[in-house]
């Protein structure tokens, strides 16, 4: 396939792909056959050179770039690169609003995310369920992940000691961690942490206010 | 104050600040007086030169960098830059799990975020409230924002037409938009959009699995 190209895709490019995918799908629905990098750059307000580079990194069809990219082909390449539609099982730490927002997110479900268990403080002996998913006590994290061969862990509650929870995930064989807490997690090199720091995002918003009000 | 320095702080640096703040607070609690950039770089697993540059951009005290940065001063500079503890009123679009997660987020509250109203489809005539915040119908967005002089809008539900909602926010005087939908929003130049694209983040996680399993 496009193994060699795939190596050259940066995290930044990867994060732009879902936006391209969205535009390409609209084009496909409207029977558009080919598209140019400048057109997509214009629609998404991105740099033309950057878009061309991103497209070239994933596009498998060899040919003259001047005739434009085939929409169907480009879309397929990107979806494959993104690993869309492969089922990926995950566990989630937390059972509050944020955890429930992620568990019930239809977009993520549509992309293949299957959350198989949630973990929280065990408040009592009664079994709890959210959206059909069992909520288990925190001490069961590593055992369950190992037993079920899970590789994605989502830390969706800042009420826990994030590093402790993270260590349990790593011990259980998790190699991709989605971290919604403010904590800077320390992990082995083979583990990828994707931080979602609301506090840092909020700083961007308030800084813009400070400069412009 | 440090107006001229502030101009040089990039979005990337700004987003690293909350991590510095967290470390500096721990040091302050432990009576540490001065700190070096390499020490913080080591703790946060960041590049030393980058940390030194970030510190220099916010630090107001003139002096010899070789003696290290004063923890209290550096912390104060960063907190002020981040606009922490200034009350900022905001509206939120959506009243589902994600909206509730944001409304009830204690970290954001602690930083001064005050959400004054939520907006959703008006399902019936009865007034709805979530966490003590009124849920109003979507057509009231621009009027309320203008009337209450609100400048931050949070789009926390992908069930709406994000661009339409965004236009209403801009029309109501919003200049900072926190966008949790996948949509690429088109806004005037003076408006800052901070995207929180869960789909794009998920792509980073699954791509890591693909490469490492």
UniProtKB/TrEMBL annotation, chains A, B:
InterPro entries hit by this protein: CoA-bd, NAD(P)-bd_dom_sf, Rex_DNA-bd_C_dom, Tscrpt_rep_Rex, WH-like_DNA-bd_sf, WH_DNA-bd_sf
Primary location group: cytoplasm
Highest taxon of the lineage: Bacteria
GO terms classed as biological process: negative regulation of DNA-templated transcription; response to redox state
Domain CoA-binding positions: 89-182
An example molecular function term from Gene Ontology annotations: DNA binding
Transmembrane stretches, start-end: none
Gene3D superfamilies: NAD(P)-binding Rossmann-like Domain, Winged helix-like DNA-binding domain superfamily/Winged helix DNA-binding domain
Assigned GO CC terms: cytoplasm
Keywords annotated in UniProt: Cytoplasm, DNA-binding, NAD, Repressor, Transcription, Transcription regulation
Cell compartments where the protein resides: Cytoplasm
Residue intervals of the Rex DNA-binding C-terminal domain: 13-55
SUBUNIT field: Homodimer.
HAMAP family, per database record: Rex
Family stated for the protein in its record: Belongs to the transcriptional regulatory Rex family.
Task of the protein: Modulates transcription in response to changes in cellular NADH/NAD(+) redox state.
Name this polypeptide is given: Redox-sensing transcriptional repressor Rex
């Amino acid at each position: 396939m496009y193994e060699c190209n795939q190596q050259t895709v940066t995290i930044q490019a990867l994060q732009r792909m879902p936006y391209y995918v969205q535009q390409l799908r609209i084009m496909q629905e409207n029977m558009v056959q080919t598209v140019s990098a400048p057109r997509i750059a214009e629609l998404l307000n991105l740099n033309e050179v950057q878009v061309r580079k991103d497209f070239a990194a994933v596009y498998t069809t060899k040919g003259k770039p001047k005739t434009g990219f085939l929409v169907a082909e480009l879309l397929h390449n990107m979806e494959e690169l993104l690993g869309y539609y492969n089922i990926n099982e995950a566990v989630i730490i937390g059972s509050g609003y944020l955890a429930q927002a992620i568990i019930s997110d239809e977009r993520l479900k549509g992309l293949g995310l299957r959350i198989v268990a949630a973990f929280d403080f065990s408040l009592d002996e009664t079994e709890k369920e959210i959206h059909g998913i069992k909520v288990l006590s925190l001490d069961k994290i590593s055992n369950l992940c190992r037993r079920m061969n899970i590789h994605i862990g989502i830390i969706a509650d800042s009420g826990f000691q994030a590093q402790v929870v993270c260590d349990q995930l790593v011990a259980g064989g998790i190699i991709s961690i989605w971290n919604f807490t403010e904590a800077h997690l320390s992990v082995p090199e083979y583990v990828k942490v994707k931080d979602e720091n609301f506090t840092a995002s909020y700083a961007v918003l308030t800084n813009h206010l400070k400069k412009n009000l």
